[in-house]
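I hope you will forgive my troubling you with a question about protein structure. The matter concerns a single protein, recorded as an amino acid sequence and a row of backbone structure tokens. Please examine both parts with care and let me know of anything in them that strikes you as inconsistent. Thank you for your consideration; the sequence and its tokens are set out here:
***
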Amino acid sequence: MSDNILVVLVNSSHPGNIGSAARAMKTMGLSQLCLVAPDQFPHEYATSRAAGADDLLDNARVVDTLDEAIADCALVVGTSARGRKIPWPLLNPRECAERVLPESRRHKVALVFGREERGLTNDELARCHYHVHIPSMPDYSSLNLGAAVQVLSYELRMAQLAAQDALSVPNEWDAEYATAAELEGYYGHLEEVLRQIGFIDPANPGQVMTRLRRLYSRQRLDKIEVNILRGVLSETQRSLRQPPTPPTEE
């Protein structure tokens, strides 16, 4: 499996779940694990539950924020067990694997799993291009963290076996997709300008930025497009700083 597929666990509360996730990953050929501010790590429970996947724990990257974890990823998929006020592009695990696997041959991809009790926050989900939902039974929908990682890892493994070595690669594009860090830079710049021109009221911003994030996530901006859009924003700011040109006398 590609080393470009990164499994990100956010604020895991029990070290045993980290070990179970590592075991699930290794059985399906995944090796890149990133932990965002885990409550306890390293820990003996993580090692015992890993059951031989100690190398994944030893090489796991530990960071403070989700932004750090996904900064260099061009595709980010977040797991979500609940609906949102603003709907987001949604995949089931099989569709997720079919999209992630071919893209991982070109750039880094992150699969983001949230906290055991409450999942990912709305702000964290807004950093994802897609959400993936495991269609468990409505009357008993609770999966533990290791099981959720196992489901998505299994689907990736099955997609790999089905494709063998002839994986279908997306149509060639003339520029690489923008990374998560580049997109966050653009979103921050965009919000700054929208506030400056009075389009967003700081006292009542509403859902403007969330909807704009969803719009751009659907379109998958590339690096050149982000640079062009930021250039437009910079030129807008420059124009705002210039005094108006007085009318010429005839």
User: Anything to note?
Assistant: The two ends are 73 Å apart (CA to CA). The chain is about 45% helix and 10% strand. Strands lie at 5-10, 32-36, 61-63, 75-79, 90-91, 109-113, 130-132. The CA atoms of residues 19 and 49 lie 5 Å apart.
